[in-house]
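We examine the record.
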Amino acid sequence: MPPIRFIHSSDLHLGRRFANIPEPQDGNIRGRLMEARHGVITRLAEAARRHGAAHILLAGDTFDTATPSAHVLRQALTAMGEDAAIHWWLLPGNHDNLRNAEPLWERLMAEAPANVHALTTATPVMLDDSACLLPAPVTHRAPGRDLTDGLAALPAPEGALRIGLAHGGVTDFEDTGAHIPPNRAESARLDYLALGDWHGRLTIGPRTHYPGTPEQDRFKHGRRGVCLAVTIDGPGAAPRVDEIETGQFHWTETELPVQAGLDTPEALTGLLPETGRRDVLMRVRAIGWASLAQRAELERAAHAAAPDFAHFELVTDRLGALLDTVDMEAIDHAGALRQAAEDLKTEAEDTTRSAEDRGIAAEALARLYAYVTEPTS
């Protein structure tokens, strides 16, 4: 019996609009991120061809909502249908669950090319003569129970590989009984359990894996998205699982420790990637303590670097102000601006005020300093 080879992916979230990402006046990062999500279909197909796989298993949340636009749906189906030798197996997840997205799955089944299959029932289906796919489609956005509980009872031909496909978490923080037990592969006699829902790459056990989303959508995971190329030689054999990078964009978040005397522009430059910035979304969190001059120089350096990136953020909410080093002469020798600066400094240092009020005053003083010391062109 030849080995079975397939691609395991999940959480494509096609049609996501990325409203949480501010759109610069002269950019189109949201459009680029949406297009990268569609482009991952082609990259998954390329991964399948390189791996010698005839099947791509999508473990839920192929679509971001229950009502994707006609363009999103039709263009996705068209892209999946371009290589008829590759079969796509789509499982409903919590975002595109059966109850809320029933019209979606009806349209998909009516319009899909022959190589695209909707797994809308917990019915075993043969991938080939040697492997049986056991799906656990998500019925409701929050079903309140472990939908993999029935996998053990699903039949498969004697001697065939049992491959589970499900969507959900292995940790249930609210103790609702809806989590997937980490040993589900063993209890359901599965040769492999392909999971979706967690957006980062995660190994639960030798037979249970999350690939994460193939195109990242947040700063949390710190790497480009991947899919999993899985090979199983036969029943009882340990799966061989290889990662194939599929993500176009790299979301990265890093801290910049600041202290008195630090050359903040130079320190920021040392954190920035030298190449590929156009496809990098970067968040830098400045922490520690800085003089107003250090902070102003850091913000100017960040502003100068930002256009190189797909998206760039400098976060300073954990950067304290060294107010004893404030050069009031740099703000104004006298007059209204000097008086405003003196008042803000007094408020920021007033321990009878709340920490929030002192922070607001310090932030206002920092902004005033940056404004009046901005070099003129």
Notes: The mean pLDDT is 91. The CA atoms of residues 5 and 348 lie 63 Å apart.
